[in-house]
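Q: I'm teaching a short session on how sequence maps to structure, and I want students to see two examples side by side rather than one. Could you give me a first protein with its sequence written out and its structure tokens following it? Keep the formatting plain so it prints cleanly on a handout.
A: Of course. Example one:
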Amino acid sequence: MSISSAYKTARQIYTAKYLLLNVLIAAIYYKIIGVIISVQQFGVAFYSVPIGFVYVLVASASVLMTISIYAILKSGLVANLRYSGAVSSAATTIAGGVFGACGCSSALLSSGLALLLGSGEAMLVSTLVAERLGIVFGAMSLVNIILIASTLNNLSGKSKRKG
């Protein structure tokens, strides 16, 4: 797939209706991340990662969800390709909320790690994740971007085969 065909496919998808849907999903995802962070921080939404990383994650996740909704509503695509983008979009948003407040030290995650690895190793993992939150957010955004390209590729190929 060339970049021009992906661009054309994205332009076909993003009518006013889907642009509005994208903005709505982005607002909801940003709120979800904020709520998860504030719950972990006892009511205070304090991001331990630069806010730009949060914006990039929210933007990529909302674009992926919008394109996935379009693909789901458009008939003819293989089911697992349609749903993988939607699932990844929601999963990276929730993970962003958990890790955004350094959720690696949240009670649920650190208890689970302590059970699996032992308390010393759980603290080590917690510290490593806390020190590299930018990389974690970048990796989640990169997964979303790769899935956006893959979904656009599938949609572009499907429209070429029909036409």
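Q: Perfect. Now a second example for contrast.
A: Example two:
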Amino acid sequence: MEERGARWLIGAARASAWIGAFMVFWSQNVQWGNDPDSGVGPPLQWKREVTGAMLLALVAAAALTISWLRGRRPGALGRTLCAAGGVAVLLIAWMLRRDAMVDFPHLVQGPGWRWLLAGGGLVLAAASLSLAAPAVVRKKTRPTKTRRRG
């Protein structure tokens, strides 16, 4: 029973990491300010930063998934990459919002910020879930050797 719970936690961690990465990606497709003429996506001066946040979220989700494929709980490297990716996405969102509040106050409203922050939070939550999962080792089956009788 404990193994099933651990698998559920690891599955939930992987799912939340991928959903968080998708949410960071989706932040590029929604409006970032309250001006309807500004179009969708972040302003041009921040496109690189938001794209970097998206790539960090993808690396974090991939690190959790790839480390799980080995048959055990996500390794220390996978969990560390996932946590670092989530913190980095949240720091990028915080720095961009701070700059927007100082230089471009009309860009503070809009759902783009919320998508970026929610995605980074989900990636960080995935790292926390993977830390909470107890160690589970999948049983590996070996092919049986048949003896030839001569």
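Q: What should students look for in example two?
A: Point them to this: The chain has one domain: 2-132. Also worth mentioning: The chain has a mean pLDDT of 83.
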